[in-house]
């Protein structure tokens, strides 16, 4: 026991308490044991059954956060892709009497998004239909981001032929006009589980943590770390950056993709003392499930 303390793997919170693992100890376990595991057949069957029972894409995402919370006894988080990285399955533009245009985008997994915009110039409905037909014919399965890059290349190569239509398409499909950040959906469940954790005896720290959890942008920034991480499942121990109470928490997150392009992220935020093997494998399996669903698998 003394050797483990000397190596920084155990510590005593106060004189009357027993020894508990440090963040370094949990990290050792994650690297040596849990990261090599696979989800049990029971968990795979349960997760798939729970997600497939949902009737709409939005309900699937909401159910995912519920399943992640149940697995971890913490916070389950599911974040939809930013608009620029949404895989386009179908686009439609509808002209309103006041010259505004309703942009309807069906993305991977059948998720529908719509946004009312006021374009820089007036359109006729037949112009909008022509643009939508062209985009749906050439760019189904592309992200908005990739679509816009290709349209710009076409403009550079054949400006006279494509100038007006490509310019209009670029403007109508501009994520900044369509509200890229504000339209990103986040599903969170399990705050009550964190609030009831024995790790949080300091009520001020707990209140600060719960307030941080309520901030959508903080959670999006927190989970974005897994996008650049080399490992399939990203584990971060001790999260002082979100609040003082965050030092007791661990984040386990993963991204899901379509055609090798990251779409969104999912994960759990829970007390550091958790069943890492089950949590990591559940997060990995769920990311795989959503990647397959994005590609029609």
Q: Explain this structure to me?
A:
- The protein has 297 residues and is an alpha+beta fold.
- The protein folds into two domains: 33-81 and 185-294, 2-Layer Sandwich (Beta-Lactamase), CATH 3.30.450; 83-178, Enolase-like, N-terminal domain (Enolase-like, domain 1).
- Helices cover 46% and strands 20% of the residues.
- It has helices at 2-6, 23-32, 41-52, 57-72, 125-139, 144-157, 159-172, 175-178, 191-195, 203-213, 216-223, 225-228, 276-294, and strands at 10-11, 20-21, 75-79, 88-95, 101-107, 111-117, 186-189, 234-237, 249-258, 261-271.
- The protein has a five-stranded antiparallel β-sheet, sandwiched between helices. A three-stranded antiparallel β-sheet has the order 4-5-6.
- The protein starts with a helix and ends with a helix.
- The model is unreliable at 1-17 (pLDDT under 50).
List keywords for this structure.
20% strand; disordered N terminus; alpha+beta; Beta-Lactamase
> What is the share of helical residues?
40-55%
Number of helices: 13
- Which secondary-structure class do the elements indicate? alpha+beta
Q: Give the end-to-end Cα distance, rounded to a whole number of Å.
A: 50 Å
**Given the C-alpha coordinates, what overall shape results?**
elongated
Q: Give the number of domains.
A: 2
The overall pLDDT average reads 79
